[in-house]
Amino acid sequence: FSKLMAKGKGKKGKKAPKKDEEPDESTEKLFKLYKKKCTELQCSTSKALMAKFLDDDVEDIDKIHIWDEIGWQGVKALMESLKSVDYQHCISLRLWKTGCEDEGVRAIVDWLATNSTVRMLELLENKITPLGCDFISRVLAPECNSALTILKLDHNDIGSEGIMNLSKGLTMNKTLEELSLTYCNIEADGARAIFDFLIYTKSGLKKLNLTGNHLRNEGIRKVLRGVSCAKVLEEFHIADNQFDDKDEILQAFSFCMTRNKTLTHYDLRFNAIQDDGIKHLTEVLLEATHVWNVEVGEKVTQDILKEFKER
């Protein structure tokens, strides 16, 4: 603590407040309170975050990126501290494998409900369940006025129930621009929830990544109906979702690619699309000229793959 407070208000190069303006001491207050909360909850502080606090070249912390396993107690200690000091400098909150769990998500949402600066929330592999998704949906709802534009929940076993819970907030959300739910164990019965938020006419969603789930043929058909209506969607990743190239699937892609004129990038890799399927997509793309990037698997005849790439 002595190092942080040693120079004036604690940071090298800290701008002096304007006349009649109170000095901003929120970072120093956050540092003190965070250590106190960790002691109260009997949890370790984040090494990465402490390094930022003690870095003389860091004035205020705009990115809180933690990858050490601090547990839900450590996340709660930090979130309660951020809320108590009304910290408004952070624009990005990224927690990777921290052991956050649903209780940590509850604390995150409790802070974000009072925050107007955080635009990116990334909770990678944090043992979040459908309950945590229900918490997150509250901050996505329009009455919360959240600043979030990017949400990434990759590698959490939220399943179809989790996407259903998230959809409660997403179906009326105007501000989110990127949503990533890779390897979240979403099955075909979660496709309707995805459809529901995709067809919201005022949605701002530009990028959707569903790689590594289990939508299969039944689910992908429902999702593609929603994708065809998504007014501003530009990039759609559906790799490794266990669907094939049966006629109804190819027709669903044909309809989607020709109808949605804003969507220019599809990722279809690691699905069972064979030579005939690639030939069909090649013909579709002659009409859907706005689509400039379609990623497909390499396990097709080389001549057909070459023709597809040159289309």
Compact description:
It contains twelve helices and nine strands. It has helices at residues 2-5, 26-40, 47-53, 71-84, 101-112, 130-140, 159-170, 191-198, 216-227, 247-259, 275-287, 302-310, and strands at residues 63-66, 92-96, 120-124, 150-152, 178-180, 207-209, 235-237, 265-267, 293-295.
Keywords:
nine-stranded parallel β-sheet, disordered N terminus, single chain, elongated, 311 residues, alpha/beta
Please state how the strands of the largest beta sheet are arranged side by side: 1-2-3-4-5-6-7-8-9
What ranges have pLDDT less than 50 throughout 5 or more consecutive residues? 1-14
Please report the total strand number as a whole number. 9
Helix count? 12
C-alpha Rg, in Å? 23 Å
Mean of pLDDT: 93
Structural class: alpha/beta
Percent of residues in helices comes to 40-55%
How many strands, which pairing sense, and closed or not: the largest β-sheet?
9 strands, parallel
**Cα-to-Cα separation, first versus last residue:** 62 Å
Give the H and E element order.
HHHEHEHEHEHEHEHEHEHEH
Described by the principal axes of the CA atoms, the overall outline is elongated
% residues in beta strands = 5-15%
How is this structure best described in words?
It is a single chain. By secondary structure, the chain is an alpha/beta fold. It is built from 12 helices and 9 strands. It has helices at residues 2-5, 26-40, 47-53, 71-84, 101-112, 130-140, 159-170, 191-198, 216-227, 247-259, 275-287, 302-310; strands spanning 63-66, 92-96, 120-124, 150-152, 178-180, 207-209, 235-237, 265-267, 293-295. A 9-stranded parallel beta sheet has the order 1-2-3-4-5-6-7-8-9. Strand 1, helix 4 and strand 2 form a beta-alpha-beta unit. It starts with a helix and ends with a helix. The model is unreliable at 1-14 (pLDDT under 50).
